[in-house]
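Exercise 7. Given the components listed, write out the predicted structure of the assembled complex. Treat all entries as one system.
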Amino acid sequence: MKRLLSGNEAVARGAWEANILVAAGYPGTPSTEILENFAPMPGIYAEWCPNEKVAMDVAVGAAYAGVRSMAVMKHVGLNVTSDTFFYAAITGVESGLLFVVADDPGMHSSQGEQDTRRYCKFARVPCLEPADSQEAKDMVRAALELSEQFETPVLLRMATRISHSYSPVELGPERTLEPRPAKPAYEVNTGRYVMVPANARQRRPIMEARLRQVADWANDWPGNRVEMGDTRLGIVAAGAAYQYAREVFPNASFLKLGMVYPLPTRQVAEFAAQVERLIVVEELDPVLEEEIKLQGIACEGKSIFPLVGELSVETVRESAIRAGLLSENERPQQVALEMPALPPRPPVLCPGCPHRGVFVTLRKLKVVVNGDIGCYTLGSLPPLTSLHTCGCMGASIGVAHGVNKAGIQQKNVAVIGDSTFFHSGIPALLNVAYNGSSTITIILDNRTTAMTGHQQHPGTGHTLQMQPTNQVELEPVVRALGIERIYTTDPYDLDRLEAILRECMESDGPSVVIARRECALLPSVRKQYTPLRIQADKCIACGACRRVGCPALHKSDEIYAKTGRPKTEIDPLLCTGCEICAQICPVDAILFRSQLDAQPEDKA
Amino acid sequence: MTRNDLTTNFLLTGVGGQGTLLAADIVGLVGIQLNLDVKKSEVHGMAQRGGSVISHVRWGQRVASPLIAAGEVDYLVAFERLEALRYASLVRPGGVVLVSDYRIAPVSVSSGSDTYPDAAAEEQAYGDSLRRFLVPAVEIAQQLGQVRVNNIVMLGALSHFLPAPVEAWLEVISGRVPERTIALNREAFAAGRAHMQ
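Answer.
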């Protein structure tokens, strides 16, 4: 029986079947599960690196040393490692080198949309794109063989709907569980791998020639296939866009591409000659469309289909109806419901989230906060609304320093998570110390990479493959960067955190506050949940507790007679007992953990 | 023609932490058990953070798109009443809406800026173009002693509408839940199915 695998699981399986020995990456939705699924497989080595740049260098090094390897990341991770991406393309490799990069059309979990195929054209790296899990698995092997045949890194472009969609997969043969091959001797090849200008000038034309050879080879590669149907309409498509188009145009002719850069030019020309009208259905940028037009072949693409956002059956169908490719009758009948206004349900900081204490305090101090990428970005949402910028990984500290140097009146604060600090916060904090600004940096140290689902990092004491390892301490690192004013505190302790921040704000020169408390979703923390209780007779319905934005606090049916406002109740299934609301309550109506036993339940 | 008539489309929705993704997993695997082509799609990342969770599952002879188009949902299975409303307009005319009788207030409601739609507003919204069933799944699960199996109660209710044999469901469920909870989950499935009969 076939297995129902996600695209990410399929890539992991494909990497194992195809004898990848070394894999490295940094977590990022929608790519995270690839390495998580690969790491436990027998006979391989996999690691989380501090960032994508390091991860790609690791994969390149392993390929230079003669073993098949891969680096895995989300689309914006490729920005971080673009320098490596370009040098790896110019040196090339002799052993299979795969980069798996997952795009996020529609920005389900990202700060931006970007089309990784553009990078492939930019750096002259061949790009494969699967349309389901079976292809995702099979293309890993194809990519490695292509890589070795043409001595080039190859990129496998995933996307949210491929990574996180499940479809049946016929597994390949189990990899033979031989021990790793005897240690290969490193073969020195200075002319190829030392990119000083003299050598780089030798390599440069080779890249261009290689690309032409790959394009020629792709004409006969079965991963690109023609599905002839009605020749009045010919569609070129790849990835998830192919699936949507297949559904909307069941009878059209298709050129389904598995290689999206470079294009199989002869195959494209032959297909175009057989159909009356040629259209390109692709998500994000008109990459295929531009390449086809550069070939001198007329086609339509973005004049019909949207440039921005994720495609779907609906968007493809509606665009096709507008362009006259389909009739109005093709639209399915829909129910017309009289919907009331529905309150949105955006993601929120979880009950017991240690970040909440920091944002409640920052809100009280009315400071400008330069944020970063992680769960704490949710501090920008009501009712906390205490995060005012967020661009990319590691940006917080540099931006805060710049704001500071611009000479604004009020102090501003950078907030950055522990994993993000290791990722790209360290050079920025070094800059704060080196160039001396009064930037206050809060490291939100929740002891894990939380947003992507609890991955290990250099501060957790374990590797991806759960080997115990050196646990980097933040305080000595921060001190070594040249910061002298360093505080460590528990973000649940609101008074102390506020006192520390006030002290920082009154001082000149940089300060760092390490707000340390484990993520409330970690299994070790879940065991310690103790739901709090509220004494309804004491509650004055002021609502201050509910303005900490905790999902465990609700309006009660009970009304406070003096104001006519609803009192608060605590959901015992959600409350973890962090006591932030208890500290906020002006009349001590919410019992602290230590008071729960002393106070009989029936009074609550 | 826009879709293969043999295709069956399920949209499962709930709030992060309710077991929506596990339920979708099971529906997908039952399709595999029946030797059908299956696609299942969901978005990860934010699900644990109390946000709205949605999962598409499609069974058919050949399924192309991993996402169900608006107006083509055959079965909407909602683990929360507001989330049912949010996606009800995607259901085809005459389609089935199975709603767990359970409310979770979003933060915007508990902090006072929004109101949760009441039963009358719900009634008006659904009108009579959909076949809606309110299932006391949480209550049934509580009677079985474990509120967390409410998602399996809902699958039992869903199974009532489908030709798939009960054994296929039970086999998949048994393989997909922790071993010590197999008996409980089978009971939950049976209770949900019995509720619809």
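Discussion: Residues 197-218 of chain A form the longest helix (22 residues). Residues 529-602 of chain A form a domain with the Alpha-Beta Plaits fold (CATH 3.30.70.20).
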